[in-house]
Amino acid sequence: MSLETSISDKSFTNCLMNASGAKCMTLEELSNLKNGPCGTWITKSCTINPREGNPSPRYVDLALGSINSMGLPNLGFDFYLNYVLEEHLDGNDDLFFSVAGLTLEENVEMLHKIQNSDFSGCVELNLSCPNIPGKPQTGYDFERTHEVLTQVFSFYKKPLGVKLPPYFDMVHFEMMAEILNQFPIKFVTCINSIGNALFIDDEAVVIKPKGGFGGIGGAYVKPTALANVRMFYKLLRKDIAIIGCGGVENGRDVFEHILCGASMVQVGTQLMKDDISVFSRLLNELEEIMKLKNYHSINDFKGKLIEL
């Protein structure tokens, strides 16, 4: 049995990785991921300068997931670029680098530096950060998304994908897919958390920023995540891989993301709850499902969701 998968020209021993934002900000956290059982790992979405993020409490585990308004805390672009370059020198060119500039100019500056560096892994351009007060999500502005990608691909030639917010309207799926299909994108990650949710404990909100409004993840979002994975798998060019993210608590959830068309699956909320041990459990549970169904590889069932 094989859990191997690939994106662009990169091959991975299995289909699991962390979601950017979960246990991947510090050197210690990145080292834990590197030495863990996941197929690859991704850095924290970074900005040019380090950010402390929003005031605490800004992340809370919930019975069916989590709510957060982190505000993009990170150690700054130079820290993460130096990290991936050191990993590249060790022969690791299959890790992912996440960038989430607060402006187009900031993203372009970071991507120019990556283009001119020795890093040859994949970059995930985050178009879906909902938790910066006063900053709209690029992924919901279709004209702006086209503008961003036009400028980025005018100079960026290395493997690059985009992380998208969740979409809820069929027309929006089609509009975004039409834009993405025009560019040499290697993968699409969907979804980021569902923004602007509210969770109340007794008579108070549970997180401090934005009056308690934050992005929700975990089981709350799995049906939406699967719908986004499925629609983009059907609408995008077949050379664009899908990375599924949202609601992954057990091996069955991983299986369903792949069944809908995902080549890889990111883990966020459950990684925050269980730490690095979550990957071994998920892989074992996925293997058990595959054995029961007599599947020998991920490609045996990837994208083969039965539609009535």
Q: Rounded to an integer, what's the Rg over CA atoms? A: 18 Å
Q: Could you tell me how far the N terminus lies from the C terminus, measured between alpha carbons in angstroms?
A: 29 Å
Helix percentage range: 25-40%
The biggest beta sheet is recorded as: 7 strands, parallel
Order of helices and strands: EEEHEEHEHEHEHEEEEEHEHEHH
Could you tell me the strand content as a percent range?
Answer: 15-25%
Give me the count of strands.
15
Low-confidence stretches: none
Instruction: Provide a count of the helices.
Output: 9
Structural class call reads alpha/beta
Mean pLDDT across every amino acid position: 96
Strand order of the largest sheet: 3-15-14-9-8-7-6
Task: Tell me, briefly, the overall form.
Answer: globular
Topology at a glance:
Elements: E1 5-7, E2 10-12, E3 16-18, H1 27-34, E4 59-62, E5 65-68, H2 77-89, E6 96-99, H3 104-115, E7 122-126, H4 142-152, E8 160-163, H5 170-180, E9 187-190, E10 194-198, E11 200-201, E12 204-205, E13 213-217, H6 222-235, E14 241-245, H7 251-260, E15 264-267, H8 269-274, H9 278-292
Parallel strand pairs: 3-15, 6-7, 7-8, 8-9, 9-14, 14-15
Antiparallel strand pairs: 1-2, 4-5, 5-13, 10-13, 11-12
